[in-house]
């Protein structure tokens, strides 16, 4: 097939989910698999700086000499990027002549973001946005105008009256179905609409990019990267959602927060966001969200504020810190903690919130990046029942199922830690199996296939074995969070003297993976610890 590139050409090459990276076209390494999609022309690229190789489709390659400055990053510069630029510049100086020709424009990170956030102002790059437009976006704009007016003249537009709000919201839980087999009395299962089998979720590894080394070019900060696979993720359509007129706050735009906020906006909720790294708010604001300057301000300006941040330290900083949640809490303000933390901290937060007249719900979630983007999470809740009911339309937007586990704060956290203990041990077991398979002369692809057709076939085993096979560890569930959850589960086991031999061993494997530098990678990178 005729191509515009030759061996030794210096290029910008773009791997899925990562910025364009300085590289060079080289002869393919026989040990690196050719891409499955042979309809597209691919070139074998050596990445400067990280010294990895990968097959990259020609449409994602750009002649360096023609576009020297085009993909230089000014901020959020990933590790290794500067070194890669220096290396390509050095090599360019040594070249006796410079080839120039026009190639197709590569999408920038902003363009990729535009696919996730349709409705950018005109002037934004135009792409084929196949995803649904934001449902309720128009009304959001109207609401925004109204709210801005309200902010400048609060008497003109008083806040919706509580009685009306409650009337609307209490209509929703009529859809709740009590599980016939529940033993704990107040436990309620709410079947949220439009469940879709998780098996259909797209897999994270790309089908046409095969990287040899374990790390992406430059090992860029994972949670700020937008994966192409995820650009294709469409939320499950939920036309029946009637968004609560309550004003919703959301603190934390990490992997989980981003998906949840997107779905809240899509379903027509009025959302005010805040994130420690403020830049992450930008695209949500363009999609109709308000931006708060600090957690206290968000809580003050909203009726219900959700939070989903990394760990116990983050939750404490957020709640008890300067301009923190607590400073915004006054009588009747509602706060929902969705982070996975230890139950003692959860109880301390609940106590502090209620001591100031606030209302508290703990609500960790089950599911990872793709279910968050698709609005298919499982929501576990405990605390104030009335607040759980008031969150109904929000839970409908972000989840496929919600469970109310009673008033006892800590119950939802205990449930979440047990679920993640299972997750952590399963993936650690899979990692060891794949590592051993290789050592006993089996083809890992065969192992993955056998697992995928047998009784162990489930989204986790299928997706994580694919990630191990392709050695792509883009974070869906960051490994450091899994290790945190195992650690918290072990502490819980200590309290009740439950032996946890398997979980303890799995925890050691994740600790080793963190030491090897895979903390921010996906949980499947635990394979690197097992095979090392
Ligand atoms: P993530 O992508 O690592 O994002 C972490 C978030 O916490 C970011 O918004 C980060 O802000 C913020 N943060 C960290 N330290 C902070 C601090 N000291 N003060 C204020 N904000 C801070 O995490 P995630 O995957 O979204 O997970 C969030 C929570 O959900 C965790 O408790 C995790 O265990 C749980 N969870 C995750 C998954 C999953 O599959 N990913 C699934 C279920 C539950 P910056 O942007 O400024 O760094």
UniProtKB/TrEMBL annotation:
Region ranges (Disordered): 115-218
CDD domains tied to this protein: PWWP_GLYR1
Predominant place of localization: nucleus
InterPro entries: 3-OH-isobutyrate_DH-rel_CS, 6-PGluconate_DH-like_C_sf, 6PGD_dom2, 6PGDH_NADP-bd, GLYR1_PWWP, HIBADH-like_NADP-bd, HIBADH-related_NP60_sf, NAD(P)-bd_dom_sf
Sequence ranges of Basic and acidic residues compositional bias: 128-140
Segments of skewed composition (Polar residues): 206-218
A Gene Ontology biological process term: transcription elongation-coupled chromatin remodeling
GO molecular function: DNA binding; NAD binding; NADP binding; nucleosome binding; oxidoreductase activity
Family: Belongs to the HIBADH-related family. NP60 subfamily.
PANTHER family: CYTOKINE-LIKE NUCLEAR FACTOR N-PAC, OXIDOREDUCTASE GLYR1-RELATED
Protein name, per record: Cytokine-like nuclear factor N-PAC
